[in-house]
Amino acid sequence: MTPVRYRAAVMEGPGTPVALTEYDAPTLEPGAMLMEPLFAEVCGTDVHLSHGRLAGVPYPIIPGHVSIGRIMEISGSVTDMEGNAFSPGDMVTFLDVHETCGNCYYCLVAKAATRCPSRKVYGITYSSCDGLLGGWSERVYLKPGVKTIRIPEKLSPETFIGGGCGAPTAFHAVQRAGIRMNDAVLVQGSGPVGLSAVAFARISGAGTIIVIGAPADRLTLAKAMGADETISLTATTAEERTRRIRDMTGGRGTDVTIEATGNPAAIPEGMTLTRDQGTYVIVGQYTDCGNVEINPHTMINRKHLDVRGCWGSDYSHFHGAVQAMARHGAGVPWHRLAAWQYPLELAAEALADVEAQRVPKAVIRVAGRP
Amino acid sequence: MTPVRYRAAVMEGPGTPVALTEYDAPTLEPGAMLMEPLFAEVCGTDVHLSHGRLAGVPYPIIPGHVSIGRIMEISGSVTDMEGNAFSPGDMVTFLDVHETCGNCYYCLVAKAATRCPSRKVYGITYSSCDGLLGGWSERVYLKPGVKTIRIPEKLSPETFIGGGCGAPTAFHAVQRAGIRMNDAVLVQGSGPVGLSAVAFARISGAGTIIVIGAPADRLTLAKAMGADETISLTATTAEERTRRIRDMTGGRGTDVTIEATGNPAAIPEGMTLTRDQGTYVIVGQYTDCGNVEINPHTMINRKHLDVRGCWGSDYSHFHGAVQAMARHGAGVPWHRLAAWQYPLELAAEALADVEAQRVPKAVIRVAGRP
Amino acid sequence: MTPVRYRAAVMEGPGTPVALTEYDAPTLEPGAMLMEPLFAEVCGTDVHLSHGRLAGVPYPIIPGHVSIGRIMEISGSVTDMEGNAFSPGDMVTFLDVHETCGNCYYCLVAKAATRCPSRKVYGITYSSCDGLLGGWSERVYLKPGVKTIRIPEKLSPETFIGGGCGAPTAFHAVQRAGIRMNDAVLVQGSGPVGLSAVAFARISGAGTIIVIGAPADRLTLAKAMGADETISLTATTAEERTRRIRDMTGGRGTDVTIEATGNPAAIPEGMTLTRDQGTYVIVGQYTDCGNVEINPHTMINRKHLDVRGCWGSDYSHFHGAVQAMARHGAGVPWHRLAAWQYPLELAAEALADVEAQRVPKAVIRVAGRP
Amino acid sequence: MTPVRYRAAVMEGPGTPVALTEYDAPTLEPGAMLMEPLFAEVCGTDVHLSHGRLAGVPYPIIPGHVSIGRIMEISGSVTDMEGNAFSPGDMVTFLDVHETCGNCYYCLVAKAATRCPSRKVYGITYSSCDGLLGGWSERVYLKPGVKTIRIPEKLSPETFIGGGCGAPTAFHAVQRAGIRMNDAVLVQGSGPVGLSAVAFARISGAGTIIVIGAPADRLTLAKAMGADETISLTATTAEERTRRIRDMTGGRGTDVTIEATGNPAAIPEGMTLTRDQGTYVIVGQYTDCGNVEINPHTMINRKHLDVRGCWGSDYSHFHGAVQAMARHGAGVPWHRLAAWQYPLELAAEALADVEAQRVPKAVIRVAGRP
């Protein structure tokens, strides 16, 4: 009998094209599960990975840190957070971050689990030699203890994967910003994180929401996600942006600004556009894109500004994003971010399209192999 | 009969030497009081004023925003916050910030009274043509509504003026930092704000307190104020400072860092020396000393850092500093910062000594004119 | 020439029927304005006033603490919070709470302005001998400094007065509760405060919202305001309520519960229905309705519960409620609470209908005297 | 060769006298350690255990949830939170709470680990059939994953065990209270938790600290721990206590009150003695001592009070208490609470003395068997 084998799209190393490889079906240790992805995400981080811009990545890797699919196999009994057992056929997703230790200073005293030095991330910190530990694959091996969430019935897979990894990141950023009813909010950036931040700010009862971004089609989408106004980054000067935002905020600037650009130059502008004693959340500087000049007197001290770095997300943010998307997904077009779907064979092309910004994000459709 | 006249040290304008001028005794409007300062402070802000570095100052002015002295005259009945009437002879101080409006967006909605655009400040925003509204004077006119505090018996005038305007500023910064028991604290800067920050951090139960500053005698004073360790800014490299602070903090950096330097270059260093998910308070950039480069990825986003600008102080901070100095003043040598006393006639010299950093701070001793 | 006179509905004292009285047109002091109410509210507090249940009320009084109408006369120039001058004809409302002193411990140090002992309240703490200082009148005298808000164009007067004094109270309660996205919320009580709490919780992104209340028509309205589920207080036992709420909350109870009942017996039930480490806001015990037994071990200590008393509201809550009603009023049927309108002549009947709970709330329609 | 056997004091069941039993030396599983206690605590919880007042206790048990001693044996390599390996001879303590799951709603979403349903507690929730899992024993078996802390050199074992389980509990309560510089603090109760709360409030910079308690010698100790004033519960009426506390707090009551009594009747009194918009922490109702009547209008709603239940403690509180006792133990007489020492043979007598309140707390001295 021929052993079952599964194909995965593998990144051999920085600069090497993504290519399909076959792997033996894994044997499940007790408490493990095997998932067949329906969708796996291709995001900006994967572009960074393809260029070797993240430190300590154990190439070759199977990329894909956020995915959704069906459980195909379970070794023993595995339960969700509520204690309900999973069954084959369940539609699930899982938290890519794994092995937060629960024993270090950051886990125990600082209560900053996203800074735990032991944490591992599916699709990023695991080698393909360690197993099917990334989403660009016909099967994903869910190790014992991987935090798996049953997808609520009201949440369509397209909505979920449209939110993708940007959704929990944006959920975290909006919580960290402490957005409350009526807050005037500026979102800098109209990529996946910025668009989900708009949606979650709107759900949180924000007042005027303004997006600075590009290109035009993303600004259109930003309005559909809940923005009141959008400002084209490329078609305006900094002075024009300042004037328009002052006009919309009683001359004061926004109560809260969320930076989701990946561009250090956004930071002094964002601080300036936030009102005195406002809040500025920096969530878009996930990789090192270099330095930027700020004026600490005018931008932070005299403004009495709160600047909050926002790193990663933990289970509560992932869970919260899923809950909020399930409740509000019918009215927020997250699924439109899942419009660009590629089969596993075209993973390299999907990656190239994301890098060239021909698409805001790409989705690998795995299940139903043609 | 010769009318009574009072002398004041007046700054005619930027670049003009401070000189004594005589003024007629003012007539008190109802609710006003006249105070004879025992001590008035000379601080770094006065140096900035002498060079015209603050915008919108209505020269000529009588400098001196923090002072302590006796009430000489009262028009009608004036009470303190507790409703107790003042009497001539009472030793008092008063909040330099005045006329916070109570009616604007910042006062009413944002609850950010230190950003109220109507606020006025004794010794800075009043012209000498408006009256005796600064501390470098034989009498200070306390307008109706000026928030006046009776000095508690246990608080010596030397302790109070040694704290000076740095004490409420530092009190605010330590509150804004949210310092709690055991927190490892770095204070950048050993000037009056930094030294009081050390004292208030110690009173708040901080663990290890480290000061980076200069010159050597101030670092000695920093230890007397409560620091466990001091690091000379001039005798160390950035690498040495980093290594020493990592060694003292389990390799992580400090839980809280308070920037009190006036030097933008302190900011990237301070962010780097603070631990992940720590708190960085910027209180020392009171005037515009220029830009600085930061790396938003490594210093804020990945660190999940909280950066908090801290501007000015309100009555609660002033009141809190007085209370804390009254309780703890016997054990904290604030009075040593009041060692350099000058008569009113030598105000210009006091200012020159502060500017040249020959003294950490200077005090004008007004009462008991020689 | 006959002097102009205005009619007002006056409460002479506890137990005395409300009756119309005529007053001379007042002379405006500088900074004062005269408003003609379109609508003035009749609420539960007015019932308490008619029975003498509030201490220190200087009868005779003109009731009506929340009203909306047009400015008829202005003495000098009066501006709103943004500095824009009012003009005759402007549709406005004003904060009933007045003369918060800005000088006491509560205003300055505790920053608890709603506990300022100097505050006065239109319709409650002013005698009719002091002027037209209540809404049940053809004119309301807006003293200098009364905080007046221009009604935004998008906010209909019916929506505003339907919210009435319950809206800022509920806005405050929802802010004090810190409701965030996905929070399961229980509102105890389906009166005006409870109904607005439902609306503001929904606007804030709450997850499941449950209301316990009565009678049936208010529960229907509660659903229209945003509740997912309602439970009849009169048709269920405590055990049934507990079971249903556990069923809807994964067995844990609600994240946040807001008590808005006026019935002390609601408190132990509400604490029990809230999950461990949840938040319980008590806003409905505005008058003294007696004691209640709680078990501090099972209801507070072991639960690690946060219990938050919520007293009154300040300008920020009033402003916030107006902003939120302007933005969301089209989708939330606040106007349905303004359906029961009475002319000024029928104020006594309006009060009787509120007391007998024949209507959830009553509105005096003043302008356009028949 | 005779196998090694260890003696432990065992509680067979409610109402049965504590008696010594011998157990075989355990075989260590990988990651386990064996500790010889120097001191183990006898506290009020042990009295409750002896009467069967806690639900679900698997008698027979070896009591003693907090102890300190030396590591005698290690299986494999075990490290502390900082990653430093333990060695035989190390003086350590360990967190009695164990097996917090890290996978449930409370651990992951609510971030309320003290409410995790899986947690187990040494000395309480383990049967003696499960092993040497309580401190009243010649050896304690530290299971793999038990959170063990190396005792800092500056912290004497007497100081540590004098603080005992009251210290982390009080540390948690003081953090939950958010005590800041100058806060006037009332501690209700002068038992081990109350006394440590006084010490941590003092360390946190509190202003006036007042203790209501009994008997007289504990009030004397309360002053030595940092209280400014003490009030005898037995020698005063409620009116006298109210008057004295008003006199010491400007007529307003305390900013923060910590209930540490175990008596429900303390709660209405404590709420009343706290100032408007103050904070009231309930930490003393660890077991169910019955109901109490409160007035929700006067005590919570009108006061705008914050009431915070405080349950158990987690590693951060335990670690924090150890750090603070190490730093401040020389100036705070915790060791005086360790004055009543009993050998293991006299565990029953120690328990009887605690129950009869002949001693504020008792300590079993295990090492150095006579």
What distance separates the N and C termini of chain A? 23 Å
Q: Write down the Rg of chain A.
A: 21 Å
Query: What's the CATH H-level homologous superfamily of the largest domain in chain A?
Result: Medium-chain alcohol dehydrogenases, catalytic domain
Characterize the biggest β-sheet of chain A: 7 strands, mixed
What is the class of the largest domain in chain A in the CATH system?
Answer: Alpha Beta
What would you call the shape of chain A? globular
CATH topology of the largest domain in chain A: Quinone Oxidoreductase, Chain A, domain 1
**On the 0-100 scale, what is the average pLDDT of chain A?**
96
CATH architecture of the largest domain in chain A: Alpha-Beta Complex
Number of helices of chain A: 11
Quaternary structure state of the chains depicted: homotetramer
- How much beta of chain A, percentage-wise? 15-25%
**Estimated helix fraction of chain A:** 25-40%
Describe the structure.
- 4 copies of one chain form a homotetramer.
- The model of chain A has no long low-confidence stretch (mean pLDDT 96).
- By secondary structure, chain A is α/β, with parallel strands linked by helices.
- In chain A, the strands form 4 sheets. In chain A, strands 3, 4, 5, 8, 9, 17 and 18 form a 7-stranded mixed β-sheet that branches. The first copy, chain A, has a 6-stranded parallel β-sheet with strand order 12-11-10-13-14-16, sandwiched between helices.
- Chain A starts with a strand and ends in a 5-residue tail after the last strand.
- Helices cover 27% and strands 23% of the residues of chain A.
- The longest helix of chain A is centred in the C-terminal third of the chain and has 14 residues, at 315-328.
- Chain A folds into 2 domains: 5-154 and 330-365, Quinone Oxidoreductase, Chain A, domain 1 (Alpha-Beta Complex); 166-309, 3-Layer(aba) Sandwich (Rossmann fold), CATH 3.40.50.720.
- Chains in contact: A-B, A-C, A-D, B-C, B-D, C-D.
- At the B-C interface, helix 10 of B face helix 10 of C.
